[in-house]
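Data availability (excerpt). The following record was deposited with the supplementary files.
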Amino acid sequence: MEIGRFAPTTSGRAHPGTLLAGLLAWLDLRSRNGRFLLRLEDIDPGAHQTAIRDGLVDDLVWFGLTWDELVLQSSHRAFHEAALDKLASSGLLYECCCSRTTIKAAGLPSAAGGWVYPGTCRHRRTWNWRGSRENLRVDLSGWRVEVRDESGADLGQDLDSAMGDPLVRRNDGGVTYQLAVVVDDAEAGVTRVVRGRDLASSTATQVALRTVLGLPIPIYRHHLLLLEPQGTKLAKLHQSIGADVLRRFVEPDALRGFLAFTAGLTADPGPVSLDQLLSGFDWVSVTGNDKVVTWDGQTLA
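Predicted structure:
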């Protein structure tokens, strides 16, 4: 059986981009009669407020999404620590004292839009990471990863020049996204990862971490993003219109219809049910182009 997940962070309420990502992940798995998980990624700073987390779940229920299991990422600490143990025992884990300013000063642009870590602290190997109060990275120097999106897009990278060694634990003790997502997906038996194209640049790093940890590699499918008028991704960080506000003006079927039309799944933006979308779902219909959306205070366009 295929297993997939929708894994939003709990740093804010759902917004149109969140709902589109959830809808496409849901349609992908339900069209395959697979098992669909909702994993709330609540381990980052500011992402563990119960009220916001519950509000996000309520937004998804209101929108009509269903899942076979709800999982809190914060409940997986033991799995994350076991992975760090394995990385340490493999001799690949090292302490890093470099600040963001130092990394930026090296002047190596990354495929993700930030800066490549230049490997300054690779010599600082640690086998006793539990006693460390520094950032921890994994030595992936020399790695060339070949991986393709299910759509055929080449996601392969030379990690030294594209991303650099990934940060896997912060100096505050928190595990980072790159490690947590790999461990959590493997623990759940996820076979299909459906997510926005903004995360495509992380795929090669995650495949490398999976390989080092001896974990299976799922199929990856990356989809379009909804953008702000200025061209940036709709995100909680940018105070995009939240579902708690949208719900005052838009019914679920109408919002579903707008998002489905925007993604290329329907010929018009009229109201549509999940059953209607599911009956004819095919990735061939989903546009590969990102879409700008606007909100005038009462209407999405």
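Summary of structural features: The two ends are 38 Å apart (CA to CA).
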